[in-house]
Amino acid sequence: MTDHASATRRWPTMGSRGALVTLCCYAVLALALALLPPSVPGALRFPEARTPVWLACSALASGIALLLTTRARPARRTVLLLGWALFLLTTAQAFVVTELLALAGLYATAPVLASLTGQLTGRPRKALLVVHVISSACWIGVALMMSAVGVTALAGDDIDTVAASYHLMETFDVTLLGWLNFTATLSGIAVGVTTQWGVLRHYWVAAKLVISLAVLFLAFGWVHDTLEATAREAERLAATGGTVDQLGGSPTTVAAGFGFAFLQLLLAMLLSLYKPGGRTRRGRRALAARRAARAPVPRTAG
Fold first, then answer.
1. Strand-pair partners of 65
2. Nearest 10 degrees: Cα torsion 83, 86, 89, 91
3. Distance from first CA to last CA of the chain, Å, rounded?
């Protein structure tokens, strides 16, 4: 086997155009965020770390993109190590520094890391699939629990019980739901990128991605803040001798929000089981290209 063929086999998907474009865009975005003030200053847990982490993310993304475009390609392990560093830095920015915009960055770095990894088979593929299945199952279970407690609080007439219910919901919302959401969604994207399923090659996979993103924006953009405000108000009313009626329509909003999210996750699970819809146009093109590549080359008479 020639050196060129050996290098090609070691480097299966790292030069993909999508990964390069994503890395370049993320590098520019991270640099801009480092220079701009935070969108929600009060939400930052470690504000002094925000700018250095964004600068490091921009430098790493630029460095990986540069490595992928050089003629003398470095070892795959080196690029994967840098990819993991970029992903972990973005995760730290999102969950440790608590920069909200870094949550969107995770949806850029996870597919890039999966693309750099290439097609997985055997134990690595099974391990990634196990992470996705377990996190998805836990996500659905916690969503069901939140819906049940929300309905209990909605139907309750004792302010102390209602306040305790919202305190429990707030605890799970802060400690588990966010992590399960991102773990299930990002591992699902990674499974799609590193296997033949793809992310946009089958209608049911694309629908699951849309559902996950919709639940994410529903949770962080609406339900989380409503739950937090309702829990604070219920706690205040319980301490001052108030009544459940003084909570207004917030309990209905909380119960409806978590109930809707649970139904969407249940739909996503059913999509995984039945896999309806077949292949998208993109998936059909990819299948045709794969079959054409596997077709034997006809021999010509010498």
1. none
2. -70
3. 25
Long-range contacts of 86-95 (CB under 8 A, 24+ apart): 86/57, 86/60, 86/61, 86/112, 86/113, 87/113, 89/53, 89/56, 89/57, 89/60, 90/57, 92/53, 93/50, 93/53, 93/54, 93/57, 95/178, 95/179
Phi-psi region of 248 (alpha: psi -120 to 50; beta: other; left: phi over 0): left
In DSSP terms, 229 is beta-bridged to: none
Res. 300: pLDDT tops 50? yes
Rounded to two decimals, what is the model's pTM?
0.76
- Non-local (6+) Cβ contacts of 252 within 8 A are 154
Length of the chain: 302
Burial group, residue 146, by CB count within 10 angstroms (0-12, 13-18, 19+): buried
Contact 116, 131 (CB under 8 A): no
pLDDT band of 295, cuts 50, 70, 90: low
For residues 245 and 220, the model is more confident at 245
Mean pLDDT, range 189-209, rounded to an integer: 85
